Amino acid sequence: MKRRISSQFRSHYSAELVKLPEGYRVSIAGYVVSVRLHGGVIFFVVYDGGYIQCVAHMDEVDVEVWKKMLEVREYFYVSISGCVSYTERAPNGVEIVMDDVRIVAKPNRIPPFHPYSRKLPSLDKRLDIRAVDLRRPQLHAIFKIRHEVLQAIRRFLVARGFIEVNTPKIIASATEGGAALFPLFYYDKEAFLAQSPQLYKEQLSAALDRVFEIAPIFRAEEFKTDRHLSETISLDVEMAFADYRDVMNLLEDLIVYIVNSVRRYCIAQLAFLNIGDLKVRKPFRRISYDRVISKLKDLGLEVGWGEDLSTAALRRLAEVYREPYFIVDWPRGLKPFYIKSKRGGVTESFDLMWGHVEIASGGSRVNSKRSLARRIRMQGLNTESFEYHLKVFDYGMPPHAGFGLGVDRLIMVLTNRDDIREVVFYPRDPSRLTP
Ligand code: ATP
Ligand code: MG
Hints:
Strand content: 25-35%
Distance between the termini: 35 Å
Helix content: 25-40%
Bound molecules: adenosine-5'-triphosphate, magnesium ion
Number of helices: 12
Number of domains: 2
Shape: elongated
Structural class: alpha+beta
Strand order of the largest sheet: 6-10-11-18-17-16-13-12
């Protein structure tokens, strides 16, 4: 790693210290996550993207410097000068023996909790002061894992020949029908925030073959659950010349790759979050909707054929299926119009489940204009609103398939949080529009 950006505040980052010899003089800059004073010795742990312990003995520093050190509290931004010292006492084997500290910025309010405190306010209270909350090591770990998930997705898909695209988020009509849209004023017209890039990514795959997008989707979900947000990040993948089985194979490989990347690059973060057993095995089970219904019946939960699976049903299944699994071949009535039908009133579709959380939905797409128009009408929608999409089919549309994956949900599951809002900077839900 080469990231030397020396400035008046820092000569090195903490992560670079292990490459330096004992006694090398450095300056580092960051904010303080803990302060301990112990019989004339003061310890700071400073965060600058990594953690570094800094230590000073009362007798070994200038009196004025010692006084400044005693002023330092959690959340102070500091620039520290001192010498590299290798010692078993430091959590990562190296620390800085300080000879000076410069207080660069200090809070003018006392934050309501310390970065390491065990007694924390509720999630809602913490979200109101997310700036403080984000300075906790737990949040550092979650956001580092979040970063790694996004990096892994891009690495994996690019290596498989996908290209990254962007589609409009201000749209004229619903992608899938339904009421879960946020309307807005677009000059003198009504417009909406996109609930999914579905139709656009299908058009892109016809031209570019394999595409993906990582972007927000907007859903006017009316209720608050542990896994629904009004704005959330979606990974959308679409590939030409593929069906839902090909896409499930790809998605399975992707999940395994993400998990392995997190295990490899986020060892400290997983340990900090007490996640010891993050593991997934291929192949993931593929269970038909029909079999799920009869399984639930065996478990004492009656679900009528054609009904959606309630949260209670999904939680019950999560007790049986501990690893990620696919529910495949959903009834036509439960899937949007662009999903291809197969015999028996079902569709070439799947949901990827992990625990009780639906991580992704996908399927083979209808690629004939006539069938698509028919399906649009069957769902009680107006074909005129989809004219812009239907006319694309006149120029030829290969068979294609894809999925949408909830990135925030995946991160919630990987980090073992029980509320999706834990892993999002400023979540949007029915009761939360600010900050
Ligand atoms: P659910 O049934 O859980 O409400 P959905 O079937 O309506 O989800 P899809 O339209 O299939 O959602 O969207 C694809 C994926 O996007 C979902 O599998 C999920 O991971 C994610 N997702 C959808 N809606 C939300 C939301 N409101 N908040 C967070 N993630 C979402
Ligand atoms: Mg779904």
